[in-house]
Model the fold of this input.
Amino acid sequence: MTLDVAAIAEELRRLAFETATGERHGWNALEEAVRHLDEANLEERLRTAKTSWLLARATHGYRGAWPRPTIADRYSVVATDGSLLTPDRHSPIRYYVINLGGVVLSYGEPSGARLGSHARFFASEDDLYLSDLSRRVPVSGAVLSFRRAVEELRHAVELVRSADPPVVALQDGTLILWGLESQPDFVANWALGPFLDALQALREAHVPVAGFISYPGSSDVMNALRVSVCDYPPQGRTVNCDHCRARIFTEGHQPACDILPDVPDRVLFEQVMRLEPGARSQVFASGSMILGRYPEDDRIQFFYLHTGTEVARVEVPAWVARDRAKLELVHAAIVDQCSRARGYPLALQEAHELAVIRAEERRAVEILVDRLLAEHGVVMRRSAKDRSKRGRYV
Amino acid sequence: MCDQSGTERLGEIIETSTVGFVAECDELHCLPPLGSLVRVRGAEGEVIYAVVTYGETGSIDPGRRVVRRGSADLRDQAIYQRNPELRHVLRSVFSAAAIAYRRGDRLSYLLPPLPPPLHFSVERVSLPEAQQVTDQPRYFAILAQYRGEIPADQLLAAHARYLFDVRQSDRDWLERAARELARIFKHDYDRLVPLLEALDPDLA
Done:
């Protein structure tokens, strides 16, 4: 063991203390900000605010909660998840594998279940590299994770066709491919095109899709609250975070929003808005830039939901959020699913179990590659660094 | 809970050896009874007969523990109705000990020369076939040597009980079985007596 835990324990103890007291700091200000929130005024501020944060725009107000709707006697849930064998830089052959797990659970009389996984192998030039006329981007890392998101959603489209209505499609994680904002256009188009096609296919099939985010770290609503307590508008100025922050250095300015604690939305909805178990918040529109490239009907909106064990974030396309019955179906189905699997949707849990590629399976594929190459007289030459990690010695 | 009476196949071999095999049932809970006779058709046309020695149902993934799903209001079969995925994340497996094999018309009460292949089907044995294979209980000696999850005596008793039912309470066969047990355990009175008592239909 080379990590000296004792050496960092004291620092960790100090950090834990600061985190705990830091969360309590500003709590009264937060309660006040919620209590005195002038929603019309906030809307006006948000319209002109210049901030670098993501801001939640309320579609039906910020306050208010919706209790768990009654779940239908019969419903189906489709969930898909994916796992990757990423390209191995140390291997002479380049490929990647996406293992997709898919689950269709039907409740009611009679109930039914279909569980399955299938591996997809990618090794063609077009699969491994993206290029425009001047650049060539390898499909790995973040770019590969977009491909996985696309394949997961496409698989859901395939599975909903055979599910008994009403159906809810669940995905693990966000439906907002915000990471594409930093990618070149040809990469963004490569991922976004098929992803949006899949969202459209679900919309046309009238199947609501929801992205479930457990223990979300997002702060879109908290950021909107910061705008609500900003002292620029009373001074006749519009909210402008860059200006405000620059003054910290030039004139020792203290931003008015610093009175609010640095907590994510889940803390706001659990401890200040006090969502009851099973209840959801209002629906909010996300301010994510990438959504500007989504068709209006499929632009992702979100709400927070108390699953019984935590406050999770649920993302749905705008057409689902507008349709009261579909929104209630998503709400009720997720609460029901969470009640079946200790706070996390059962269908997503099983889809993950089907998708996950275990260490011994990864090793089995490596051995197979070695053997197949050896059959053709190619002895696998790994990098010296890789060999040094595999054959450790003293 | 399990209605497979119309099908011949019970499941598929997932572990195999010269002395027996482990099979996973096609349907959850559809286990053959302890002591019952099953068969596997091998790759070269031979038929291997085996006696079921053990059965269990559990999680398909050893890393995932089975947890309670029911309550006072939700119990037994209703739990499966409410949790349809259970049929896919649980599995029933059984072990069987080989007792004989057949090549052509020749039936040998010996361990098979080769283990049955992995992934081959395990099937029920029809009543006439079971009666024929077990007519002479000479293979009891193989079962008496069984070392596994349950005591060999329990296995022998369960097997003999099963056959007595299959053979429609054939007392002549029961007498032959008792004589064979007496021959095997002639030096072990303490094992023989409880076994004979277990076989006696008048004591059951």
Observations:
- The mean pLDDT of chain A is 92.
- The domain at 75-218+263-357 of chain A is CATH 3.30.2170 (archaeoglobus fulgidus dsm 4304 fold).
- Residues 154 and 198 of chain A are 6 Å apart (CA to CA).
- The first strand of chain A starts at residue 57 and ends at 58.
